[in-house]
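ok trying again, last paste got cut off:
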Amino acid sequence: MGSGGTDGGGAPPRLTLPALYKPLCSGVGPKSAGDTMTVTTIDLDQAVLDTAKELTGARTNRDVVNRALQTLIAVRRQPAAVERIVGRGFTDAQIDASVRHYPAPGTPASDA
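nice, full thing came through this time. structure:
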């Protein structure tokens, strides 16, 4: 029997779970020791998913869902961050400080 084939009509060779699991999961998994991954099956509107991919530049459904969740978290946390900034005590020197204007990335600085 050759590798990867059958023995002339018999059952194909059995692959063990680790042999099947490894190729599916290469490059996937926790980013650091404390991170965990959850496998979830969800139904998504294909048109919405395609639009999200276009707008974000994400190449996979997984990337789109992760970016959507990260955006949701950031948006929900934003009001608290703004309140912390507003509630911070600024000195008169900070309030009256001159404004510096920086050129946008990739544009030349003006000498004005």
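cool. Confidence is low (pLDDT under 50) at residues 1-8, 13-29. Residues 28 and 34 are 15 Å apart (CA to CA).
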